[in-house]
Write a structure and sequence with these properties.
- With 260 residues, this protein is an alpha+beta fold.
- The protein folds into two domains: 89 residues, no CATH class; 141 residues, DNA integrity scanning protein, DisA, N-terminal domain (YojJ-like (1), CATH 3.40.1700.10.
- It is 54% helix and 15% strand.
- It has ten helices and nine strands.
- It has a seven-stranded mixed beta sheet, sandwiched between helices. Strands 5-6 form a two-stranded antiparallel ribbon.
- Helix 2 packs antiparallel against helix 3, helix 6 crosses helix 8 and helix 6 runs antiparallel to helix 10.
- The protein is elongated.
Length: 260
């Protein structure tokens, strides 16, 4: 207890406003990171890493240095380096998404969002597919190119229409499985294989392969993905690794108008 009191006494020697500003900035950064990662696998990893680091720093400052456990102190510094390396590997999708946002801010020239003329055709097709309970996954490419995924599918390069989308996703056709990618007002490719997000659940609901693919492609890019469930006909939209379910025609139109 005396060690803790001595430590707090040293902190109290700093100007109160300096400590206040530092704590505010640290809290702001942690809040932004948690909000950015909310609903993703990275959120749980981040909380675990923060807990380990905070507990470790407290132990190091309050016990190790006072009792001169030099070998333990040396090992802990090596442990911090290992945690950093593991965190970089574990947070790879989230780090990529952050760098995408930093590298292409909205206020840069040429980065403004251009509304897609295909929106209305997609909305009408999705409503019909939902009514028929025909599964579908439609990806809107935005600023980040999806060429690596387009190469896994079959090139189409045709104007987006309701009839084309209905034909592509009609059960039994050559392109009905997997996803289609839309660039501007053209359907670039069909039967595109997307990366699957970690198996699990969201809001207590288990995610199928289509929804996991939607979360997966939007975690590593700025794409927007519309999903129609084959089992229930439910319409969902994924963006930034998050999934919004139970969309109706009005909410889907509003969402795509602001996102695509």
């Amino acid at each position: 207890m005396q060690t803790l009191v001595d430590y707090l006494s040293r902190v109290a020697k700093y100007d109160w406003w300096v400590v206040g500003v530092e704590l505010f900035l640290i809290g702001l950064i942690v809040y932004w990171v948690v909000d950015f990662l909310e609903g993703t696998r990275g959120e749980r990893l981040f909380r675990g890493v923060i807990l380990i680091l905070v507990a470790g720093v407290l132990v190091l400052n309050l016990v190790v240095e006072r009792l001169e456990f030099l070998r333990l102190q040396y090992l802990y510094k090596g442990f911090l380096i290992a945690v950093l390396i593991i965190a970089v590997a574990a947070f790879q999708p989230e780090i990529r998404r952050v760098l995408i946002r930093i590298g292409q801010p909205r206020f840069w020239p040429g980065s403004s969002r251009r509304p897609s003329q295909a929106n209305e055709q997609v909305i009408l097709a999705v409503m019909e597919l939902s009514a028929d309970r025909t599964g579908a996954i439609i990806v809107f490419e935005r600023r980040v190119a999806l060429g690596e995924f387009i190469e896994t599918g079959i090139r189409v390069d045709a104007i987006v229409t309701v009839e084309l989308l209905r034909t592509v996703f009609y059960p039994g056709t050559a392109l009905h499985d997997m996803a289609v990618i839309i660039r501007g007002d053209r359907l670039i490719a069909g039967k595109v294989q997307l990366p699957l997000a970690e198996a699990g659940s969201m809001d207590g609901i288990a995610l199928g392969s289509r929804h996991r693919a939607a979360v997966g492609i939007t975690t590593g890019s700025d794409a927007v993905c519309v999903v129609v469930s084959e089992e229930s006909g439910t319409i969902s939209v994924a963006q930034n690794g998050r999934l919004r379910r139970n969309m109706d025609e009005s909410s889907l139109r509003t969402y795509l108008a602001g996102a695509v």
